[in-house]
Amino acid sequence: MTALTLSTAAVPGLRADAIVIGVAKGSASKPGGPVVAPGAEAVDQAYDGGLAGVLETLGASGAEGEVTKLPAPAGFKAPLVVAVGLGAQPEKDSGYDTEALRKAAGVAARALAGSKKAVFALPLTDAADAGAVAEGVLLGAYSFDVYKDNGKSAKDGKNGKAPLAEAALLGGKPRDKAYKAAVERATAVAEELNRARDLINTPPNDLNPEAFAAIAQAAAKEHGIKVQVLDEKALTKGGYGGILGVGAGSASGPRLVKLSYTSSKAKKHLALVGKGITYDSGGISLKPAGHNETMKCDMSGAAAVFAAVVAAARLGLEVNVTGWLALAENMPSGSATRPGDVLRMYSGKTVEVLNTDAEGRLVLADALWAASAEKPDAIVDVATLTGAMMLALGSRTFGIMANDDAFRSAVHEAAEEVGEPAWPMPLPEHLRKGMDSATADIANMGERMGGGLVAGLFLREFVGEGITWAHLDIAGPAFNEGGPFGYTPKGGTGSAVRTLVRVAELAAAGDLG
Ligand code: BES
Ligand code: MN
Ligand code: ZN
């Protein structure tokens, strides 16, 4: 991953491949033309104060996502200036929007793929801004090339461009504790988030439940996290009918992984539950062609939970965090669960499986019940659960449902704070009766309309009495099928990782209610 440093060096003398500066859209007082953002003073001076005009000549407007490259002024050690758009200029003194800085840093890092070293001279107002730029750089520079060039990694630049190797952040205070802490936090979160992206992008023939569990086990060991893996035998013994039922059709058996991070100073216990379908073919209710090519992403919830627990451990958060990864491969075969089968779940409830493609709620139900047994202060589950949530919120926003309005709002606020678009969704009681089953306690499918909420209502039945719970349906933002934008690459995005880390921090601070 890109190596990151905070620096106070003067721009002209810096040896680097490029200097990144910010450019904003003109304000009311200076309509039209682009505005050079603070941090770029030395560059502007070298242009005799005419940098804004030069940028305008080159077509720059300051819009978000925009990249304008120009040769560095004479006397600069770096040959290239990269001006990256920040969007609207902020009101006087309020500083630039943190998320705009994060995105701009990501865009610049991506534009500098193939370069060795870049200097980021973006407008930083406080330590949080430094953290955001660090996060943007590390997330934006991400690439997944393991499977290119006949198995030889492209990170050496032989196939495609290698990610930006080194970034120096200017404008911060390297000796200031808050700045150091912000960059350290950003580094830990981004590294674990990128690891989640790697897991999501890894093809399903290489990442089955057993392989995922082994990776989780190794990482847990490295970071002092307690880990327990239930294999098919243990799941059978324990009565985990949901996870077993979903995994029944696959040659690769299911797993339930429990990761326990504990802090001696913890006052709260947060449980995180992730849907980990390493491939979702739909099972006997097979998905049609065109709907299964990206279904390796169906373990994104488990990847997010895994990343968040490891990040919590690396940051030494003063809260106990238990992660539950519900891992299975949903495949059709002679041993697969059929539509019409009834499963006895870990909670003891029976579920009539009307559609084997509604498998996420089955594995989550068992994991939610297992998590509930420990009586945590709150549970948050994360899942690529329904196509309906994508229809409702599009491909960049996840839905938040909960059995507690205040908790749902707190999780939503946490998401907004870290720059993850999210929106609260209801759990309308009238949709419950659509899941009434003639044979079992509940069916795994209900009304088609509001399918994301129906899935949420199903999950709610498997949360222990009196436990605060929220459900994040990340089916939209988990996997980016379009081109890269901001600090989001094509493919696995690592959606919800930053929200979960923030929720854990809030729990540690006693600010979650
Ligand atoms: N993994 C899918 C949901 C999904 C769809 C995630 C598209 C990401 C992109 C889930 O298991 C599923 O198949 N859900 C069904 C439920 C239905 C059968 C009740 C769906 O949404 O169609
Ligand atoms: Mn499915
Ligand atoms: Zn699925």
Helix-strand layout with pairing:
Layout: E1 3-6, E2 18-25, E3 35-36, H1 41-46, H2 51-57, E4 67-71, E5 80-88, H3 98-111, E6 117-121, H4 127-140, E7 166-169, H5 177-201, H6 209-222, E8 226-230, H7 232-238, H8 241-247, E9 255-261, E10 269-280, H9 300-315, E11 320-330, E12 342-344, E13 350-352, H10 360-372, E14 378-383, H11 387-393, E15 398-402, H12 405-418, E16 422-424, E17 442-443, H13 451-460, E18 468-473, E19 479-480, E20 491-492, H14 497-508
Parallel strand pairs: 1-7, 2-5, 2-6, 6-7, 10-11, 10-14, 13-17, 14-18, 15-16
Antiparallel strand pairs: 2-3, 4-5, 8-9, 9-11, 12-13, 15-18, 19-20
Helix pairs in contact: 3-4, 4-5, 5-9, 8-10, 9-14, 10-13, 12-14
Manganese (II) ion binds at residues 280, 282, 357, 359.
How would you describe this protein?
The chain is α/β, with parallel strands linked by helices and 513 residues long. Helix 8 (241-247) packs antiparallel against helix 10 (360-372), helix 10 packs parallel to helix 13 (451-460) and helix 12 packs across helix 14. The longest helix has 25 residues, at 177-201. The chain contains 14 helices and 20 strands. Strands 8-9-11-10-14-18-15-16 form an 8-stranded mixed beta sheet, with helices on both faces. Strands 1, 2, 3, 4, 5, 6 and 7 form a 7-stranded mixed beta sheet that branches. It has a 3-stranded mixed beta sheet with strand order 12-13-17. The chain is elongated and about 80 Å long. Helix content is 32%, strand content 20%. Strand 12 and strand 13 form a beta hairpin. It has helices at residues 41-46, 51-57, 98-111, 127-140, 177-201, 209-222, 232-238, 241-247, 300-315, 360-372, 387-393, 405-418, 451-460, 497-508, and strands at residues 3-6, 18-25, 35-36, 67-71, 80-88, 117-121, 166-169, 226-230, 255-261, 269-280, 320-330, 342-344, 350-352, 378-383, 398-402, 422-424, 442-443, 468-473, 479-480, 491-492. It folds into 2 domains: 3-172, Leucine Aminopeptidase, subunit E, domain 1, CATH 3.40.220.10; 194-509, 3-Layer(aba) Sandwich (Aminopeptidase), CATH 3.40.630. Manganese (II) ion binds at residues 280, 282, 357, 359.
